[in-house]
């Protein structure tokens, strides 16, 4: 079955389409068990189409296909250079169809078309980057004594399970499949049941690129069924998960209860941005706004807790509120030419974010700007800034995953480091100061996998990304991601 729609919007005119079945063993199939699931356009609050969702049985079929592909046409059978060429080809094809992919992503997520386009460019760049690594995965030779030596091989795991969320659907998909395929693994991928369209469209690119059947399988479905089956499957040797900390715990439990599969987790956050008196005000406001409002706050590393030193406090609030006011004027139709702020992903998320806003209000925090929905259609929430915030409020302690910033005033460096680290999360942080010694000192003192100094949100493909504390296990991106998808074998040789 095929979904097809013609769009005539200010930023995209043309058709978007994708298959709606499960992509298993290089073919589009109907689920053995399972059924149909509605896919929404959150900007309109309307169903766009229905797609298949699978079951435990479908996961099992996909795992068998992936096992066969691993043994016969991928894994140790396909040289790195060949795997690299497939990834490069996939990047080329994605770039060829980039605008259609971006339009499909916008339709399914409500994010501005300009943002979706950037996500698609980044997705293609990631595939190309890992295509470049595929023939550069090398071990070491270790001399042990005069008659013996040993060498290491970085071998793939075999069949990998990958489960991803809805906030940056195709980008997350590319971040997962790029390094896994480059290192020789085969994949059973579950996109978010809410945002499967671009992942499904990618299935056709895999076929067009000539990727051997079974190397990449895409099984759409719910977390409790398809996700759970992947997490428990005895023939999946490794699982890579991105999503909430709550689900991350379930993935680890499933691994412990099944076959001790290796688990890597990219989870939630409650990241601090710290602004010192000597920060460059204009630049800081630009980065801090992006940090919290980009993608409508639906970003794991969003800078949600903003600590501002007392000397710059008033000027910062004034400028930051102005930035949010401008963004509010650019809110609306995701396909609009000037739109920079779109819809939240779903009614559930909309209600959740609004309930956090209400909890902030009733706890005594002051709404500087926003704090309400935008328009009557879809799930738009205005960029929201809270001041008068106390460190024990719910809006400061829990991940909101929406466009809601909480601002806390501070006096001294030691005090702010303590407050910033007072969270179970440790994904990212931002430090804004013109004093380079302080910048480095504070960046090192904060408990986070990524520290941005005088910038935010700049995720580079070549730089590892991942969480401290309950924000995750393992590092994606860069050369580090190759370690996620390989296991080291030591070969001892007696000459
Ligand atoms: P979620 O945990 O609800 O779902 C993520 C994925 O897991 C989905 O595909 C879902 O179907 C699946 N899932 C749900 N229950 C499952 C189960 N019992 N077993 C197996 N799979 C299951 O998260 P979400 O709401 O889709 O995404 C938002 C969360 O993701 C936020 O907490 C955010 O911080 C996090 N996130 C983290 C990163 C990162 O890189 N650290 C990136 C993006 C999003």
Automatic annotation (TrEMBL):
Please provide, alphabetically and separated by semicolons, the GO molecular function terms listed in this UniProt record: aldehyde dehydrogenase [NAD(P)+] activity
- What UniProt keywords are attached to this protein's entry? Oxidoreductase
The Aldehyde dehydrogenase domain extends over: 28-491
PROSITE patterns in the cross-refs: ALDEHYDE_DEHYDR_GLU (PS00687)
The active site is formed by 266
Q: Gene3D superfamilies of this UniProt entry?
A: Aldehyde Dehydrogenase, Chain A, domain 1 (3.40.605.10), Aldehyde Dehydrogenase, Chain A, domain 2 (3.40.309.10)
- Name the Gene Ontology biological process terms: acetate biosynthetic process
The protein's matches in InterPro entries, at most eight in alphabetical order, are given as: Ald_DH/histidinol_DH (IPR016161), Ald_DH_C (IPR016163), Ald_DH_CS_GLU (IPR029510), Ald_DH_N (IPR016162), Aldehyde_DH_dom (IPR015590)
Family that this chain belongs to? Belongs to the aldehyde dehydrogenase family.
- Can you name this protein? Aldehyde dehydrogenase domain-containing protein
